[in-house]
Structure formats: C-alpha cells, structure tokens
Amino acid sequence: MTDAANYMLGYSSDEQRRLIAQSALFEPLTRDAFARAGLGAGMRVLDLGCGVGDVSMLAARMVQPNGVVLGIDRASDSLDLARRRAREAGLDNVAFAAAKIEDFESDQTFDAIVGRFILLYLAEAATTLRRLSSHLAPGGVVAFHERRVVHGLVVRDDVVPARLVGLGGDLLVGGERVVLVA
Ligand SMILES: C[S@@+](CC[C@H](N)C(=O)[O-])C[C@H]1O[C@@H](n2cnc3c(N)ncnc32)[C@H](O)[C@@H]1O
C-alpha cells in the first residue's frame, strides 16, 4: 500500500470540499499566526502539504506584491484544483508542484516554510523540517498552524462527517479517534 493510500482523510471530492470549508473557519487564525511569525511582503514561501491550495493562496496574498509561493502536495488531483482556484482568484504569484514532503528537493531558497494541519501526518516531522530548513534563507521563518487535541467529544461514526464539516476537524489523528471539541 502506498503512503497516499494510507492517508487517513483520503482524496474524495467530499474531502476537497471539507478542506475548503475548514479553511474558511481557520483562515483568520492561520493569517494571524503567519503574520506574527513574520510572513510579509516580498517573501518566497514554501507551503508543505498544500492540499487544494488555501494556505498557499493566503500566503500569496500576504507576500504581495513581490513575493511568491510554492505549494507542494503528493496529491495531483488536489493540485489541479489548487491551480484552478488560484487562477480564478487572480493570484499569479503562486505555483503548485507534486512532491512527497519527505523527498522534496529544490535549488530554490525560501524566506519562509509554512503549513497547516500537516506535521501530524509526517512520521518524522522534526527530521523532515530540519532537512527542509537547509532551503531557508538566513533569518527565514518556519510557521505551522497545527492542532493539538487531547480529549474531547467522540461522536458516533454515522454522524462524524457532518460534524467534521461544522467543526473543521480531522477525522483521525495518529490512528486514534479524534477529538472533536464543540
Ligand atoms: C489535512 S490536509 C491540509 C491541507 C492544507 N494544508 C489546508 O490546511 O487546507 C493535509 C494535506 O497534506 C498532504 N500530505 C500528507 N502527507 C504528505 C506527504 N508526506 N507529502 C506530501 N503531501 C502530504 C495530503 O495530501 C493533504 O493534501
């Protein structure tokens, strides 16, 4: 089974819609975290696990006018949708590329490496981030919006998807039933 086949949230159109709905809920928090980390005009940004493009597009707006963003994900269908959405949003400073984060190589240097809800899916997140930070310019920013949930509401399997959209939560984390806090 491939890594992508093991990815617990899958790549259905429902999941793509869920990511977009989730992003609408979380965008103000993500923007605030990135701004406080120092993301700003003119920066070159790498977005890890960009999915259907929401964080990349947010970063692209934050680094205008001269900054650029590269979003990477291993799911080419998600990247196709991300490209379409960025084009429809009139953003010409964001590009997307298919890559497994752990294997990503580039001769580019970035001023910031960012992501949202991605580190929890990496088996060796610290090792991967340490390796990727070699692509950072001196003084570069590393900023992630992640979730740390320990206990919460466990709902019946048949009502989980509806709750997920409403709460913006991920279904399973680390192989255990998530924690959805209302
Ligand atoms: C929960 S989604 C978050 C998407 C986006 N960051 C957002 O906040 O809307 C996680 C994304 O990471 C991608 N992903 C997970 N593990 C990955 C890996 N090892 N390499 C590349 N992409 C990965 C998945 O394909 C998925 O699109």
How is this fold's topology laid out?
Blueprint: H1 3-6, H2 13-37, E1 44-48, H3 54-62, E2 68-73, H4 76-88, E3 94-98, E4 110-116, H5 125-132, E5 136-145, H6 160-167, E6 172-173, E7 176-177
Parallel strand pairs: 1-2, 1-4, 2-3, 4-5
Antiparallel strand pairs: 6-7
Helix pairs in contact: 2-3, 2-6
The protein binds S-adenosylmethionine.
S-adenosylmethionine (SAM) binds at residues 7, 9, 19, 23, 49-51, 54-55, 73-75, 78, 100-102, 115-118, 121-122, 170.
Strand line-up in the sheet with most strands: 3-2-1-4-5
Largest sheet: 5 strands, parallel
Measured by DSSP, the beta-strand proportion falls in 15-25%
Q: What do we call the CATH topology of the largest domain?
A: Rossmann fold
Helix content: 25-40%
CATH architecture of the largest domain: 3-Layer(aba) Sandwich
Would you tell me the structural class of the helices and strands?
alpha/beta
What characteristic shape results from the CA principal axes? globular
User: Which segments are poorly predicted (pLDDT under 50) over 5 or more consecutive residues?
Assistant: 149-182
Number of helices: 6
Distance between the termini: 34 Å
Short description:
This protein has helices at residues 3-6, 13-37, 54-62, 76-88, 125-132, 160-167, and strands at 44-48, 68-73, 94-98, 110-116, 136-145, 172-173, 176-177. It is of the alpha/beta class. It has two domains: 3-146, Rossmann fold (3-Layer(aba) Sandwich); 150-182, no CATH class.
